[in-house]
Amino acid sequence: MPVARFDGVAFSYPLTEPRRDRPFTLSDVSFELTKGEVFGVLGPNSAGKTTLIRLLSRVVAPTRGTIEIEGVSLAAMTRAELARRVAVVPQDMPQGLPFTVRELVLMGRYPHAPRRFFETSDDLAVAREAMAATGVLDLADARVGILSGGERQRVALARALAQEPRLLVLDEPTAHLDLRYQVECVALLRRVNRERGTTIVLVSHDLNLAGALCDRLLLLAAGRMARLGPPEAVLEETLLTTVYGCPVAVERNALTGRPVVQIAWRR
After folding, report:
1. Are 50 and 91 spatial neighbours (Cβ–Cβ below 8 Å)?
2. 93 DSSP 8-state letter
3. Rounded CA gap, 32 and 11, in Å?
4. Mean pLDDT, to the nearest integer, of 65-78?
5. Do residues 214 and 229 touch, judged by C-beta distance below 8 A?
6. How much is the mean pLDDT over the chain?
7. Please, which residues have CB within 8 angstroms of residue 21's CB and are 6 or more apart in sequence?
8. What percent of the chain stands above pLDDT 70?
9. How many angstroms separate the CA atoms of 44 and 205, rounded?
């Protein structure tokens, strides 16, 4: 049974939505996520990547088609049931949140007992493990509002890990991280994927990160599926040049054999 399944999914934003000055439609999206895979979602701005996350986390509902998680319709799940299966790490958290890092990470435990008001020793242990894994354990008593963007990103990842989801969705997880923490973030995602068997959806503008980390890629363009397949099939020069509107060159990493994308600068 797939972890998640999109079948003929379509969605349109109304022009009345804030910051929406032109129509956008996601059309006929169909794919499955298999257990334990790392799945990348790529595409230029306004291709539909964020919309896909919003659909998968039920922030919005499809206007056509169905979405299932582990064989159950997304529409039939309670919020707590969905949160026990799917955790989303946003691109950034709001600044000024009046919580400590420990309090925020412990919020990831709420879906496991939504009527409980106090955390258990097991909750504390899971939260501590999540903070240690993401390198924020020494910030446990710090207020989230004083943290840097990179630190907030790692705290958001720790909260998601504390949910113990079967499906982890990440929106530009390395966007605010310096080089060291980018490497550590990628290593952590690999470890979560391999040791816990967590299925990961990575939404990214970084084609090379996705090509190095993901088992399969979905390339979106103007709300439609441009290609779905392994990195070497999706990160292809002619296709990327067409979708992104600029010339690119694709080579192979000498160590891994994975595709490496570069802009073909004209002099």
Report:
1. no
2. P
3. 18
4. 95
5. no
6. 90
7. 15
8. 96
9. 7
pLDDT of 118 reads: 77
Give Cα 236 distance to the centre of its chain: 23
The type of residue at 96 is G
Q: What's the pLDDT band for 18 if we cut at 50, 70, 90?
A: low
Total Cβ atoms within 10 A of residue 116: 11
| Enclosing H/E stretch for 181 | helix 179-196
Show the tokens assigned to 231.
């990195």
20: its two tokens: 């929406």
**How many angstroms separate the Cα of 137 from the Cα of each of 60, 127, 129, 144, 147?**
34, 9, 8, 13, 13
C-alpha distances out from residue 34 to 1, 20, 77, 265, Å: 8, 34, 20, 38
DSSP state of 146: G
CA atoms within 13 A on the CB side of 56: 32
Q: Inform me whether the pLDDT recorded for 232 exceeds 80.
A: yes
The residue to which tokens 């955790």 are assigned: 87
Report the alpha-carbon distance of residue 224 to residue 26 in Å, rounded.
Answer: 6
In the block, tokens 């595409």 appear at: 43
> What single-letter amino acid sits at 209?
L
Give yes or no for residue 175 having a pLDDT over 60: yes
Q: How far is 100 from 112, CA to CA, in rounded Å? A: 21
CA separation for the pair 86, 59 (Å, rounded): 13
For β-strands 259-263 and 248-252, DSSP reports them as antiparallel
Structure tokens at 226: 């441009």
> Is residue 174 within 8 Å of residue 209, measured between CB atoms?
yes
Cα–Cα dist 107/116, whole Å = 12
Q: How far apart are CA 123 and CA 145, in angstroms?
A: 23
86-89 and 167-171 strand pairing: parallel
